[in-house]
Design brief:
The protein contains ten helices and three strands, in the order ααβββαααααααα. By secondary structure, it is mainly alpha-helical. The C terminus is likely disordered.
Amino acid sequence: MLALTAVRGGEIRGATPEEFEGLGGATPIWRIPPATRMKTAREHVVPLAAQAVQTVLAAQSLLGPRPRLLFPSVRHAHRPMSENAIGYLLNRAGYHGRHVPHGFRAAFSTIMNERYREDRAVIDLMLAHAPRDRVEAAYNRAAHMERRVELAQKWANTLLEGMPDPWELIGLPRRQDSNLSSRSRCATLRRPRHDDGG
């Protein structure tokens, strides 16, 4: 999820199920509240690629009743995982000295700026970077959500081409959400195709 969304580690660690909206719809988002976990005073709205939606649904399927956090500590379900947990996981996976959690943000910025140079401002928005120009920051509130959704999907396709979906990784059948229409359910629960061409 950290790699798919390119958010900061603290934003992932404190994620709550209530922050995720429209998981069965056309434009699912993760709404990160300001001040609590963001470096800025503004709320950060993260568009979710199909693979990120599947990750959220798979993570939710592992939680008990009335979960407080989406990615809790293994020892204490009411506390977030430790600040070093993701780094330790990368080390155990063989990336010690080669990759760190914050590296996903750097990789996203580098790769997407190389591929989509005309979208630099949109990519900065996706990283929740504050505009360098204070006047622009005060007057330009454009969210560019449609393009952000497209870029999020292109990034997810680049990362996970040929990889198993999260349901296979955790060994559970895909969750059927009774609140979704049958058409939305099929779209949400089907493994996404990687054919965006970009």
